[in-house]
Write a structure and sequence with these properties.
It is a single chain. By secondary structure, the protein is mainly α. The chain has one domain. About 80% of the residues lie in helices and about 0% in strands. The chain contains four helices and no strands. The relative contact order is 0.15.
């Protein structure tokens, strides 16, 4: 991983977070239950928090951050995108249950990313 990739990936995730947030607030609001909408918004929030973190870390990039950066990138994809898939598939009557176990794996990657980030400061 290099600085350019981190900054590019963070920017794409931020852009998609805005698009998905608007999609949820304006289009899905009519289709989803309030519980489903809250789940979808959780995916968007975590995606945006970590996109901003990646952007910040990208500007201060060092090779010591590689482990945490990879964990954040993988975690965002697994966590947020599995939530999007679960919510949307459920709302349209074709629930993709195989995504259920992927969400906590993504969360674990995010936790490990934060742990590795903390270690990098020692």
């Amino acid at each position: 991983m290099n600085q350019q990739f981190v900054l590019f990936f963070a920017s794409i995730l931020g852009m998609l977070g805005i698009i998905f947030g608007a999609f949820g607030a304006h289009i899905l609001k009519k289709k989803l239950t309030s519980e489903q909408l809250i789940s979808f918004e959780t995916g968007v929030k975590y995606q945006m928090y970590h996109a901003l973190l990646l952007l910040l870390l990208g500007f201060r990039y060092t090779k010591e951050l590689n482990g945490s950066l990879w964990c954040f990138c993988i975690g965002i994809i697994l966590f947020s995108f599995s939530i999007y898939g679960l919510v949307l598939s459920n709302a349209y009557g074709k629930k993709m249950r195989f995504l259920g176990p992927i969400t906590p794996i993504g969360g674990l990657f995010l936790v490990v990313g934060w742990f590795l980030l903390a270690l990098s400061f020692l």
